[in-house]
């Protein structure tokens, strides 16, 4: 029997050599392993402070995107200044537009506390200033002067009225003149009873006295107004002394900060304009509303003094550099903050103290790290972020999506200038979507950092990965990993990368194994515990695989693994469930007969075939024409089918397998059923690499193992995929013992000879193949079909 090229056991996976390991001596976390391209992009993007140079970190989950984005940002932030505190205060000129104050880090809390202490002092001192004896004495003197003048004026007017037979009646509503008859003042009823001529005489005399009374009342009101102003001036003088004594301390402290000084001056003037708010007022004790509704407060001093408070939006007193904020819920209100409302009898009201900060406020002056998926899944979040970055300002306002008809008293806070670098983390799919559908995305995110899903397997990366294992174990309080356990993890990293010369960068997969291995460990974790953790994980995820295996064992799904069949071959297909991938053999059959339909893909006819698989089938026609139809046209009808396929098929990795079945049917030569085949083909018969080689080999091996290894079973794979083999130890051991075989091939002829046991055949100078070769038999059958077709046409 002809000897075929097959792989040796030591070519089937990466074997870790213990001497390759380099243990780190440092306790510092390892750098970004195997991601030099991404590291350079992130570092470059962080240094660029020009508008629009935000960063989009692109890559698969589990590659350390978030960890290293945060780490790099914090490192850069350490050397940058701490941003100022942001405060909203009452705008005395326009209360509906709260005013923004910026103070050095820690200054916001200091101003809030100082002003709060000052207000506490004023609320205590001002009432006392107006209740002391000196103030009361001066106030009483002013009032007494007014009363004396008033009494003197009334005395004069009383005498003038008496001379004209009128008496004076002084009430709270004014001065009234009553006629005097027989030395006594008469009332209205008595006046009405007088004779008409007497009433006319009294009325005539009263006109002059009423005129005089109007003049007197004007004089009294002028004196009263002057007295009131004297009292107010006295109160203002007392208040000015008290307020000035307390406020001047603040004004002097902030004399060199113009915006703060201007605000404090406005506070002082408003207090002096509303001194009555600070005096004790018990006039509401008998308010009927207070008696009926105990919770009703007509004069709420807390509300009166709210305008003198400081809303400290961001307090950066604890920072030592620029802020770095990582968040997983960037909703509209979480991004730009919100304005809360109070509900009083169905009316909603608010003020500047109810403005709450958002992520952009907290990260202003630094870095904000978000996930693209989180951002796009929150209503209006992306639009809000884009608008903020374009305008350079944070505008906090309610999201008025619906008109509820509720009366709302709103405010419009002063916009805040923004200086923040956004680091957006997501997949390539989200990047392409934003790039394609948002015209501004390209201008806003000019730095793209791609995280690779794999890295080269070399000494440097092995050393870094070993350092990572030790660092993670120490960080997570896991037992130490011995050298064999580290080696097993590195071999597993190569398996996850599905290449012998690569390591995965999905460190989350490795840390999961480390954590699960620690559950059974003592003082140290061994290679056996790593293997057990991997097996446990696979057991949790392989239920679907086991179900399919049971169906094959019970002959519910028909697969032959012994003997030979004409026009029938075992193909291999990978099934990926997301977190677990496996492969199972699939029976492929081909039938050939006379006709002109060519090769018909039954899956395509049933609309169960993908476009790539359709292309692979079309390549078969090209190969058949190139190889056999140089002297006569093909007169062939052929149907290819994936038997018991009910879910569709795609990809071209079975194109060589399908060709073997077609050639077997044409030559009427049986194909070995103990061999499974995978590989793509081009029109020249060259075998091309495919994906999932490791899973495909293991899938057929598992079936053969369950049915009993005979020493003849094996798999034919493309030669280029040898580097992708990271097979399980049981497969490696079976190959080492000669119980299973893996054949790498580069041309369709190599596979023909393995599967049929006959030579494929080489054409002579006239393009003819040996009669007993596979190609010779195929050529002979095609000529026969052509001649029959010609006769039918006649």
Structure description:
The protein has 794 residues and is α/β, with parallel strands linked by helices. The protein has 27 helices and 32 strands. The strands form eleven sheets. Strands 25-26-24-23-28-31-32 form a seven-stranded mixed β-sheet, sandwiched between helices. A five-stranded parallel β-sheet has the order 8-13-16-1-17. It starts with 35 loop residues before the first helix and ends with a helix. The model is unreliable at 287-299 (pLDDT under 50).
CA radius of gyration is: 47 Å
Going across the major beta sheet, what is the strand order? 25-26-24-23-28-31-32
Going by helix content, strand content and strand pairing, the class is alpha/beta
How many helices in DSSP terms?
Answer: 27
Low-confidence region ranges: 287-299
Q: Roughly how much helix do the residues carry, as a percent range?
A: 40-55%
Biggest pleated sheet: 7 strands, mixed
Euclidean distance between termini CA atoms:
46 Å
Mean pLDDT: 86
Amount of beta strand = 15-25%
* E-strand count: 32
- Using the alpha-carbon principal axes, give the shape: elongated
């Amino acid at each position: 029997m002809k000897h075929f090229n097959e792989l040796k056991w030591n070519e089937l996976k990466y074997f870790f050599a213990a001497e390759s390991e380099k243990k780190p001596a440092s306790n510092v976390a390892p750098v970004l392993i195997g991601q030099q391209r991404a590291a350079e992009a992130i570092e470059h993007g962080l240094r660029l402070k020009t508008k629009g140079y935000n960063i989009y970190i692109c890559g698969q989950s589990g590659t350390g995107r978030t960890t290293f984005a945060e780490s790099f940002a914090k490192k850069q932030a350490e050397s940058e200044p701490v941003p100022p505190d942001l405060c909203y205060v009452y705008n005395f000129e326009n209360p509906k537009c709260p005013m923004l104050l910026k103070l050095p880090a820690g200054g916001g809390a200091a101003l809030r506390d100082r002003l709060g202490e000052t207000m506490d002092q004023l609320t205590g001192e001002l009432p006392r200033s107006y209740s002391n004896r000196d103030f009361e004495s001066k106030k009483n003197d002013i009032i007494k002067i007014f009363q004396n003048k008033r009494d003197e004026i009334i005395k004069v007017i009383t005498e003038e009225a008496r001379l004209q037979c009128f008496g004076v009646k002084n009430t709270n509503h004014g001065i009234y003149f009553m006629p005097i008859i027989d030395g006594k003042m008469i009332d209205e009823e008595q006046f009405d009873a007088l004779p008409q001529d007497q009433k006319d005489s009294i009325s005539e005399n009263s006109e002059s006295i009423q005129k005089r009374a109007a003049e007197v009342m004007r004089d009294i009101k002028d004196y009263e107004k002057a007295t009131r102003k004297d009292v107010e001036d006295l109160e203002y003088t007392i208040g000015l002394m008290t307020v000035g004594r307390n406020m001047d301390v603040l004004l002097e402290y902030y004399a060199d900060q113009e915006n703060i000084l201007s605000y404090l001056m406005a506070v002082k003037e408003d207090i002096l304009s509303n001194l009555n708010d600070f005096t004790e007022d018990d006039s509401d004790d008998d308010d009927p509303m207070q008696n009926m509704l105990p919770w009703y407060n007509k004069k709420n001093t807390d509300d009166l003094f709210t305008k003198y408070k400081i809303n400290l939006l961001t307090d950066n007193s604890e920072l030592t550099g620029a802020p770095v904020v990582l968040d997983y819920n960037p909703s509209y209100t979480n991004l730009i903050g919100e304005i809360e409302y109070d509900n009083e009898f169905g009316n909603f009201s608010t003020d500047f103290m109810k403005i709450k900060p958002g992520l952009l406020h907290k990260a202003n002056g630094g870095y904000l790290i978000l996930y693209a998926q989180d951002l796009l899944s929150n209503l209006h979040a992306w639009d809000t972020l884009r608008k903020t970055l374009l305008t350079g300002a944070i505008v906090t306002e309610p999201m008025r999506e619906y008109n509820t008809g509720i009366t709302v008293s709103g405010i419009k806070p002063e916009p805040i200038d923004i200086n923040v670098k956004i680091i957006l983390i997501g997949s390539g799919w989200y990047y392409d979507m934003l790039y394609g559908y948002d015209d501004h995305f390209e201008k806003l995110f000019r730095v793209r950092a791609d995280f690779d899903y794999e890295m080269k397997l070399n000494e440097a990366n092995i050393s870094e990965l070993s350092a990572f294992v030790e660092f993670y174990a120490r960080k997570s309080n896991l037992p130490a990993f011995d050298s064999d356990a580290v080696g097993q993890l590195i071999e597993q990293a190569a398996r996850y990368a599905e290449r012998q010369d690569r390591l995965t960068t999905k460190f989350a997969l490795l840390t999961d194994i480390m954590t699960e291995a620690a559950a059974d460990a003592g003082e140290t974790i061994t290679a056996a515990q790593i293997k057990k953790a991997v097996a446990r994980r696979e057991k949790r995820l392989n239920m679907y695989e086991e179900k399919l295996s049971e169906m094959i064992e019970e002959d519910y799904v028909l697969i032959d693994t012994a003997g030979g069949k004409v026009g029938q071959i075992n193909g291999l297909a990978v099934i990926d469930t997301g977190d677990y991938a496996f492969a199972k053999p699939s029976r492929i059959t081909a039938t050939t007969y006379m006709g002109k339909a060519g090769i018909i893909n039954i899956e395509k006819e049933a609309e169960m075939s993908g476009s790539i698989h359709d292309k692979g089938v079309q390549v078969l026609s090209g190969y058949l024409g190139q190889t056999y139809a140089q002297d006569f046209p093909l007169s062939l009808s052929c149907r290819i089918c994936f038997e018991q396929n009910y879910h569709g098929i795609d990809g071209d990795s079975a194109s060589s397998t399908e060709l073997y079945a077609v050639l077997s049917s044409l030559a009427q030569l049986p194909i070995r059923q103990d061999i499974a085949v995978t590989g793509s083909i081009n029109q020249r018969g060259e075998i091309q690499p495919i994906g999932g080689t490791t899973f495909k080999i293991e899938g057929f091996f598992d079936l053969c193992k369950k049915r009993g290894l005979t020493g003849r079973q094996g798999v034919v794979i493309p030669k280029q995929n040898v580097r992708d083999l990271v097979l399980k130890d049981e497969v490696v051991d079976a190959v080492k013992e000669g119980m299973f075989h893996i054949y790498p091939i580069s041309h369709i002829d190599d596979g023909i000879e393995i599967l049929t046991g006959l030579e494929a055949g080489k054409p002579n100078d006239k393009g003819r193949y040996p009669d007993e070769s596979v190609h010779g038999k195929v050529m002979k059958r095609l000529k026969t079909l052509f001649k029959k077709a010609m006769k039918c046409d006649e």
